[in-house]
Amino acid sequence: MGIVVEDVSKQFGSFQAVSHINLKIESGSLVALLGPSGSGKSTLLRLISGLEAPDSGRIWLTGEDATYQSVQDRNIGFVFQHYALFKHLTVRKNIAFALELRKTPAKKIKARVDELLELVQLQGLGDRYPSQLSGGQRQRVALARALAVEPKVLLLDEPFGALDAQVRKGLRAWLRRLHDEVHVTTVFVTHDQEEAMEVADEIVIMNKGKIEQIGTPAQIYDHPASAFVMSFIGPVNVLPSSSNIFQANGFDSPHPEVFLRPQDILIETKSTEATVPARVSRIIHLGWEIQAELTLDDGQVVTAHLSRERFDELSLQPNQRVFVKPKDARAFPLHYSI
Fold it and tell me: Are the C-beta atoms of residues 205 and 220 closer than 8 Å to each other?
């Protein structure tokens, strides 16, 4: 087992940052800690790294009790959101820094730095300074520096949060390929659902200092364990269970709210069994799909997603009268928040 977090809690003053967390992360896996601000994900990462000490519980790294080990003794690579590179050192010197502190022979340092520059695709840039690199390149240097000492665990705190959307997307794909090459146990914190779904083997959903659900991206999306998870992962319509779109389909729920994904709303131009009338309020072109905002006769507004092919078949227009029904809907107990 790579990482085991056993009944760990941490409080800052009166604020309970994490509460009785139990988590097992397999060796060699890539795991995302995902949740909104204040959910406890960064605190959990800092507890694993040793930057914070738990109030209770234990933390195990590769089978060894690391609860009271220093940061240095844990052999962890840590990558921060804002790189934390040494501005006065070249790329090569930044990567070599920890190896030099360990008094590694110069020949071995050079070989390791050359290897890492190739691994992070920065060959030929070793003599540049951080100010001469793009944001994406600086983040790659930070990753190379973290990998230099061959850590048993790699931790990344919002690693792409400071980058623009296009660079972030490219680096996500690169990080996935990098992990498949080095296979170091990796945990990264993010509040970006798409980032977690695209990169991670497994996602840990956190909310208010507790774990809501653990699973693969497909499990989390297709089988959400709670209203919070369904609301946080992907777009969703939240409607009262009394809405006529459910009444017409015989969907009877003891809970006051029902959750319906935009892609699970079927649209027809003619009335069919179990459909209810609606008006097309707005059409938004999102490139690979179309988003239609619909107003039901009972005043409820829902968002539907259609493929371009289906949109062309229907020939939807603003203010058009259509007929809709849910393909799939879910209900959960209340007590969720984002």
Answer: yes
Phi, psi of 282 (to 5 degrees): -160, 145
Dist CA 185 CA 326 (whole Å) = 41
* Token output for 323: 């007929």
3-state secondary structure of 325: strand
Are 232 and 307 contacting, i.e. CB atoms less than 8 angstroms apart? no
| Cα(66)–Cα(153) distance, integer angstroms | 12
Interatomic CA distance for residues 279 and 318, integer angstroms: 8
Q: Read off the amino acid at residue 57.
A: G
Q: How far is CA 192 from CA 152, 213, 296, in A?
A: 26, 16, 31
Task: Say how many C-beta atoms besides its own lie within 10 A of residue 226's C-beta.
Answer: 16
Candidates 35, 43, 122; CA nearest to 85 is 122
Burial of 88 (0-12, 13-18, 19+ CB in 10 A): exposed
- Each residue's pLDDT tens digit, 96-144: 998 998 899 999 999 999 999 998 889 999 999 999 999 889 988 998 9
Three-state DSSP at 98 gives helix
Q: Is the pTM of this model over 0.90?
A: no
Short-list 226, 163, 204, 192, CA closest to 21: 204
